[in-house]
Design goal:
The protein is of the alpha+beta class. It has eight helices and ten strands. The strands form three sheets. The chain has a six-stranded mixed beta sheet. It has a two-stranded antiparallel sheet with strand order 3-9. Strand 5 and strand 6 form a beta hairpin. Helix 4 crosses helix 5 and helix 7 crosses helix 8.
């Protein structure tokens, strides 16, 4: 089960009016692509949903969430954008890179060394440094408490609530995510924005295949099972940074899609 990052309206998300990075790559290179959900059903099963009905449902759900989390004193949080046209941002860090970012962040926070490499499909949740950060009551970071949705609110919040499909998940805010990303960079790379943006294309996974005569092949290409930890961390960081900035600019949520 892979991991994609989506920053956009919930209407587009649930109407399936968006394409993952893998889908976009496949179409651009002339390959077919079928996305399967964890339940084993193709996303085409969602195509019968009416976008107007979805938009109305998302706005109703949004109203309930904002009413529950807005300050009791002072102005309520402003509704975010909900329609089927606002542009979206998406990219695919996958879990190995996401875990590498958490490991890098925890290591820098505690000033501890981290392994230079990680294995493909490594179980990052069991790493002692990541577990330590997740249990640290003085550093309650959305990235370490299992948040999978970040709402475009500047205040730093975290809470559990049902998402529109009624599954209870951990929510946080884009403001919290940006604060965490700033802290990771400050204690580690101290990179400028231009450098951060470049990492999504210069860092990450080594190629496991190549296109020859219009055909994707792995023949003669080494299959990689060991990855550079910091390179993966930079790759995932760049993607999350871009998603969070996009989220605040367009006032749309950011989601982990898996």
């Amino acid at each position: 089960m892979g991991l994609d990052i989506y920053a956009g309206t919930l209407t587009r998300y649930y109407a399936q009016n968006w394409k993952t990075a893998a889908q976009q790559w496949a179409e651009a290179n002339g390959f077919s692509y079928s996305r399967i959900t964890p339940q084993g059903e193709s996303e085409r099963a969602e195509e019968t949903l009416n976008p107007e009905e979805i938009q109305e449902a998302m706005k109703n759900w949004q109203s309930q969430i904002l009413a529950a989390i807005s300050p009791k004193e002072g102005p309520s949080y402003e509704p975010w954008t909900e329609d089927n046209e606002t542009p979206y941002y998406t990219e695919k860090p996958d879990w190995d890179a996401f875990g590498a970012l958490l490991l890098y962040a925890a290591a820098k926070t505690y000033k501890e060394p981290f392994p230079k490499t990680v294995r493909k499909n490594w179980d990052f949740e069991k790493h002692p440094l990541i577990q330590r950060m997740g249990e640290d009551e003085e550093r309650v970071w959305s990235l370490f408490i299992g948040a999978s949705w970040w709402l475009p609110i500047e205040d730093g919040l975290a809470f559990n609530a049902p998402c529109p499909t009624e599954e209870e998940i951990t929510f946080s805010t884009t403001g919290a995510l940006l604060m965490e990303l700033h802290q990771i960079n400050a204690t580690g790379w101290q990179a400028d924005e231009e450098t951060i943006l470049s990492w999504s294309s210069t860092e990450g996974y080594p190629a496991d295949g190549e296109i020859r005569d219009g055909t994707l092949t792995k023949a003669g290409v080494k299959e990689h099972t060991i990855y550079d930890t910091e390179s993966l961390a930079k790759f995932a960081y760049s993607i999350l940074w871009q998603a969070a900035k996009f989220s605040m600019e367009k006032r749309v949520p950011t989601l982990l899609d898996f």
